[in-house]
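Rotation project, supervised by the postdoc (A.L.). Task for the rotation student: set up a whole-complex structure prediction and record inputs and outputs verbatim in this book. Inputs entered:
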Amino acid sequence: MALKPISHIIPPRNPHFVGDGFRVQNFIPSAYGLDMQRMSPFIMLDYNAPFHFPATETPRGVGVHPHRGFETVTLAYQGAVAHHDSAGNSGVIGPGGVQWMTAASGVLHKEYHEKEFAKQGGMFQMVQLWVNLPAAHKMSPPKYQGFNEQDIPTVSLENEMGHIKVVAGHYQNTQGAASTFTEVHLLTAYLNPEGKATFSFPASNNTCLLVLSGSIEINGHEERALDNHFVLFENQGEHFEITAQEKSQVLILSGAPIEEPIAAQGPFVMNTAEEINQAIRDFHTGKFGKLED
Ligand code: MN
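Outputs recorded:
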């Protein structure tokens, strides 16, 4: 097994607001080298780095909007998010929780800070990831998987070096909580100072990580990545190692690329321009169902 070399490290991005509740930095697809085809099946990654929202009686967030052709995955690290969709699913997640929404053929949904969190205000930190679906599943029925922190399998690292939460795919022999349509590994590593973890994925997978807090060394002393930096690996070699220089949290993603054309427009990600036009027509003629704002 060969070492997986680093392609490049992307520094923090300028934040912008999505609605009034998510102050995000976009890495996929707008950062250099992270376009949808290169990062497939990961087609969007927004990171809300720790940010303090003041108390409010009116929860902040994003109102009703459609999605078709992929999955939206929300990972909460601080604060709480509430979700409602036109397929009738809803849920609230707090720190360590994950919402995995398969939009597939289409849903309307809304995403807001959870009411009590909004009322008190506080630190908010989350990731929103879009995972593409292959053509065969783009028009499958929508579904929703919600996980609290304790629903997500944990792998403890030896010598109290920390632990890995297995959201999807697997880490060593531990299977993740979420079911996926293609090979997707989604892990959060919580490492103590000097804590070390090794990862192994097929060389052909697209593999990357985001340092959520702290700082790490990768592959021994090869490279160092700080808080809020995004690391893209080459599609060679299988394994890499990270070592925390201080208490650190790291999101690790690896997935088998979906080798199909991508046609993307706003909240719709399909294979062809005609399918995008169809999605827009279906949205405007009410085919995505109904959801109160
Ligand atoms: Mn959305």
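Student's summary: The CA atoms of residues 169 and 185 lie 4 Å apart.
Supervisor addendum: DSSP finds four helices and 26 strands in the chain.
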